[in-house]
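User: Show me sequence and structure for the first protein, then do the same for the second.

Assistant: Starting with the first protein.
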Amino acid sequence: MVRKIGIYKGCLALSPLIVFLGLYVVVSLVIGDFYKIPLSVALLVATVWGLLVFRNQTFIERVEIFAREAGNSNILYMIWIFLLAGCFATLADKTGAVESTVALTINQLPSSFVMPGLFLAACFISMAIGTSVGTVVALTPLAVNFAQNVGADIPFFVAIVLGGSFFGDNLSFISDTTIAATRTQGCKMNEKFKSNFLLVLPAAIITFGIYLFGDFTIDSAPSGVPANPWLVIPYLAVIVLAISGVNVSLTLLSGILLAIIIALCLGYDFFSILGFMGEGMDGMGNLIIVTILAAGMLGLIKSAGGVDFLLGVLTSKIKGKRGAQGAIASLVGIVNLCTANNTVAILTVGSISKNIASEYNILPRRSASLLDTASCIVQSLIPYGAQTLLATSLASIPPTAPWPYLYYPWALAVIVILSIILSPFNRPRLLSKN
């Protein structure tokens, strides 16, 4: 049941998000420099604003809401993954595993296929493991070294990984977003997959074509670069275990253990190895701070009625099937903007979306597809999403740096909009089998 929130109270509830976006995105665009305002500072200012202006609880109660949301099990588990990812990435980098993996790859590929090949790898891995975070962990360090070896911008290559990772997160049968969307809409996974595939395939083909035929200035991939095949084993293990469906924690722990063993065999000092691991975990500090602040701030917004206000506004403007489909996509997208978690966004608006779909005779598979796809589009474009934060932290670049190069989510957004305008999913011949 959605609470009815007045305009004044609703806008006030959303004001921390407005303060954050205004301070970080708008000001940075105006001054032309996203390095000037740290993301963590923008989130801190927005959080303090929320603690001060919300009057529905005492100040201590508001702080407790912030702490509870910032410290929930999902956030803590995410932080655990960040620590393991930082540990593995730095250990692999310092011992030469990343360089060897890149060298073995570029020795076999023409430079023109490095970008489309990386995109296909990200699509395949994310489809197999059902998680964009796991794909980001596995491929971002490789993407950074690819960029350095072919003379390309690092944000550009990080964006390739992010786009491909959301391809599988949106489409995979074992993705948590797929499970949430199909359960809330009451459709089978294979039905949702077929509906989704009609959206993601054109976007993926367009993106692949851009990487393959686009006029990008890169140096020729160096040939004959020396590499130690033994150092590649940790990365291969991480990718194979991830594709096999092994939990991401166990996958990263296995990769770390293998990297330690190989480093010791190659003569690295044990205490130096521990130092590399510590350096990697320390490097995740800012990412962890941003994650905690974002979760707490968004918890305050939800508690104050910001999400309920959005749901009420959007559901009151529905007119016809196209409007209903647009409302479903907009609902989950805007809630995702507020929660920075696509699974949570789907679960939040799932029941409302099902009611809308039922009232306007929209197939459950279509509403499930819209929920999953629209949430993944927004999640991939916001600079404070977990995947972008993790990828840019591993690459040591600002969270907004990959944004201009996110061709896949933008292509997918265009396809979704066209599918709503043209409404091919509502024609009688497609309604015959539900």
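Switching to the second protein now.
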Amino acid sequence: MKHDKLIKLVLAALFAALTCVATSVIHVPIPATNGYINLGDGMVLLGAFLLGPVYGAAAGGLGSMLADLLLGYASYAPGTLIIKAAMGLCAGLLFGALRSKTKAAALVAGVVGEVIMVLGYFAYESTLLGYGLAAAASIGANCIQGLGGLVVSVLVYHALYAVPSVKKLAY
């Protein structure tokens, strides 16, 4: 039992680092919104699918927040921590509830997670950052990012889950 928790903790730290790298190395700036599109969402969802809702949420939230801090988006870091953690938590919970019932569990849970991300950033930008309705300008780019993250996470999850050692450790 203690060994399993240690393995999950190490894997969560690894996924946080992987999320940070996928967000910061592979990102496309969007001058119109002052944001960027990245593949970090794919790692947030993948972490939720493989590690479960709690460890996946922690890894996704922390890794994404670290990327914001490293890339100079410190004003987004608190929101990113909460939004990406909520995204991972909800996607992980839904995936856990659906995985024995349908082969599309990762797809359905991923879509819900990405909707949380898009709505979360709109709410954060419009209220806490004070952008008001101008925050709607980032919805399109966030949807594109979400779609990319969804495709990456579902494809990589199914590829990894076919590996016996990964299947044994997976949530």
